[in-house]
Protein: Possible hydroxymethylglutaryl-CoA lyase
Amino acid sequence: MSAVQIVEVGPRDGFQNIGPFIPTQTKIAMIRDLAAAGLKRMEVTSFVSARAIPQLCDAPEVLADTLAQAKTLAQVLVPNARYGLKALEAGATFLSYVFSISESHNRSNVRASPEESLADYARLVDGLPAGTRMRLNLATSFDCPFEGRTPAARVLEFLERAFEIMPEAEICLCDTTGRGEPDQVGELFAQSMARCPEVAAWAMHAHDTYGRGADNVLAAHASGVRIFDAAIGGLGGCPYAPGASGNVATEDVVRLFHDMGVQTGVDAEALLPIARRAAALPGANAGSRCLLPAAGAPR
Structure:
């Protein structure tokens, strides 16, 4: 079977909900160790309001070290053009722009309508330096914490408009709340690929709030997706999606694909001690299956 790429989002999505500030050097050390374990692409931080998400106030320092190490492709999340420009000024070469398909969630998250965020995305794209890579995250593609199930037609409408703005961007459909289910995931990816067959690459961002993360990853994989977000230790959650728990755990996704005979380029055993460190961070809420005691093992 063909290989997949795991995008480690723990240093951004995994850390952002943790209250006690994680020392910058602790973040840097974990990113370096994750790279050494074979995770060659990571969402290392986000340029956002330090008042809104104080955990990520050290974004410039974290990004600078990752770029200096040159061992991983450093992806940086940005919620609007303003912070996109800040990330570019700090040296970012791979942006991950996010907006929500759902009106209420996007207003809660970035205080703008989806239409306004799409227009802002166009402004950011228009000013990108040559060679800058872009991913577009369509949050709440499957479900919204305020509005419920997201209509597929609405996702497809925004997808088509976003593709016209930057055809070479990678597109990621995000299960922000973890309420998506496998049939829905598979069908939406199939419809999206049919609507925009020339998208450069497709990705899946899964949360595991209801224990469906791995099943939804498999559904996306069966639809042809080969890029998957995951967070070490299953850390994470969206601060603007009440009740949403962590991302699907990196070590669980790697083990799943390896058991299927699908290559990830990641050392599964090397991930486990890093996952234990992540889970032990003060304020962390881990959700890893691999870290659970095996049946019959001492607790």
